Amino acid sequence: MCEIHKLKMTNEELKNSFAQIFPAVTFDETGEFLTAFIPSEALLPVMKELRSKKELYFDYLFCLTCVDWKDHLMMVYFLNSKTHNHTIVVKAKITDTINPKIESVYDIWKTAELNEDEIFDLFGVNFLNHPNLRRIFLEDDWVGYPLRKNYVDEHMIEL
Asked: What is the chain's mean pLDDT, rounded?
């Protein structure tokens, strides 16, 4: 058997390792990947541990997105360890929908830069300590965030 596959953790092992980093974590195993839920305030220290802990070593952020649930925003981080070949999804809830903000993970995974710009542009999430947060699709004077559920545009077609 290939050495890389010997190192892959089961979901139970991933849960146990994650709980050592952040004991208050909750999990969902109904999707394709194990999903961990953490408060947004814990994001940065938890993500740093997921990256640096030798047995986890999540070295690749392969997707970062946001979901608007009307009463809160959910940041969704898809992490993979190329070394160990395991994957986890980390979700962090942002309760302030008026001025949503969360720490940037750019210093941990450089792939976050463009994803955070996109989420800022289309959802209005401010990523604290991002090196150059900017709009990338919409003009600088655009009003509103088109992927938010409360967004209204005069050209929208209502069903």
From this structure: 93
> Distance of CA 4 to CAs 33, 81, 83, Å?
19, 10, 7
Q: Identify the DSSP state of 3.
A: H
**Domains held by the chain: number:** 1
Residue 148 Cα distances to 53, 73, 119, 153, angstroms: 35, 9, 10, 12
What is the C-alpha separation between 37 and 27, in angstroms, rounded?
Answer: 6
Which structural domain range is residue 93 located in?
Answer: 3-99
List alpha helices for the chain, DSSP H. 3-6, 11-21, 43-52, 112-123
Does residue 66 fall inside a structural domain? yes
Whichever domain contains 81, its CATH number is 3.30.460.80
Is the pTM value of this prediction over 0.90? yes
Q: Cα–Cα distance between 146 and 1 in angstroms, integer?
A: 48
Reported as a single tens digit per residue, the pLDDT across 40-90 is 999 999 999 999 999 999 999 999 999 999 999 999 999 999 999 999 999
At 7 the pLDDT is 67
Residue 51 one-letter amino acid: R
Any domain includes 150 = no
